[in-house]
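Please, is this right?
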Amino acid sequence: MANAGTRYLRGPRIDPRPLTGSETIPELIDGVFLAYNAGRLREASRLFAERMLADGGTVGLSLTGALTPAGLGMSTVIPLIEAGFIDWIVSTGANLYHDAHFALGFAMHTGRPNVDDVVLREEGVVRIYDIFFDYRVLLRTDAFIRQVSARPEFQRAMSTAEYHYLLGGYLRERERVLGLSRKSLLTVAHEFEVPIYTSSPGDSSIGMNVAELALAGFQLRYDVSADVNETSAIVLDAKRSGGTSGVLIIGGGSPKNFVLQTEPQIQEVLGIDEKGHDYYLQITDARPDTGGLSGATPAEAVSWGKVDPERLPDAVVAYMDSTVGFPLLAAYALAKVAPRAPKRLYARRDALMTLLRTAYEEAKSSRDERALAAHLPGED
């Protein structure tokens, strides 16, 4: 018979109350989500609400997958930004492009995944699994992006955060003219000065339209080095200011790596003394055993310096569909945590870059001194 005193039997007993139908989201998650990936979502929700947000830490969100066409920009991301729960974002360009449809007053419709796509093409309907929309939505959104991106203030090299901030301002004005209210996360991010980066800016319809403008002779260019350095500066400031850095990873892909690579950039490339992100929270359906980045575990991230090894017990991965897990996690946090003052990191980019440059120059000077000492002739 097993020893009742063993440390493996110290967890809470599984003895939930019967559901009544009147439970709040926190009551449902805390009282019913007890095991398997429901249990991981409970752990993730508590980590986000009780640790990542409670200590005033800086939270970076990565977004992968077609979430904004499904309405998660409006239902989930915008409320988190408005509550001050998201401080900076790395997103696929596709999420931002489809987000713009809503700010322009265009419609997305629920549909079915088992339709004939040849017929849809003939009828001018575009499908994202079970989301349908008019092909003209693409053409009109393209035209808006090109028209805005051709304006004088865009004709230079800039980080993707600066591009999205400027674009968000025009989308906000378009919402105002149309009488719309908070339809686009780009407009809300502009208002709350939450910088949004795209790790692969050419890999979306926004990037495709910017490329068309380049052919026409316009000077807009994405400065991807600025993206790498600005995101690293955000993380370094979070740690050096006495706070914490947490990452909320929805899906995987390139945005996941971009939000995490900030620490290797700080440590490995710039030579600045650092340990890694303090909090790692991911919702994904990707398996770790295929070797892909999307499914790579927080323990593996420790080996790269992406996660502080001393904070690994605070890391949680919930293996489930993001369209299910993300809204539940967000609703839990919004119900449990009071709104925080927005950090408005976009407006602080110059100051953050000054901090990064100073730390880099100090680290480089120290390395140079050590290298010089190592080559000096020894004393007799």
